[in-house]
Amino acid sequence: MNPITTARETIAAALSNLPATVYTTDPRRPNVPAIIVHSDGMESEPESFAHPYAWRFRIRIIHRASETAHNALDKLAWECFEKLTEMDEIAEIEGISAPYTLVISDNQAYPAIDIIVTYNLELFGNSE
Fold it and tell me: What is the DSSP string of 64-119?
């Protein structure tokens, strides 16, 4: 199996017990709340990062659009962050975005937060 796919599925499995539907591909119409694990498609630069075989992922957290959604979104993002810090394969949590509005293909608007992580593929034993 492709090491990037394996890494994405490992992240999704670690987040699967959170109160959200976890996706490893872009859903056309996601069940919300949702956590979507995207590959950012960038290998880390060896000069700027301690692990030369690492890959960046964007964990997108979306919630229902309502007056209380931002509080629920913040809570879910914090739970997701805590789970990610427990993973040995996560070398670094590079950043957490401010909440923003995400428009899905069905023209629905959802509040969202992104968490960018660097996944060390060598620790997982998937270096090529």
Answer: --STTHHHHHHHHHHHHHHHHHT-TTEEEEEEEPPPEEEE-TTS-EEEEEEEEEEE
For 45-74, the pLDDT digits (tens) are 544 445 557 788 999 999 887 766 678 899
Q: C-alpha distances in angstroms, 99 versus 46, 77, 104? A: 31, 10, 15
Q: Which of 31, 37, 30 is nearest to 14 (CA)?
A: 37
Residue numbers of the domain that contains 49: 3-124
CA 35, distance to chain mean position in Å, is 7
Count of domains forming the chain: 1
Q: Quote the pTM value.
A: 0.83
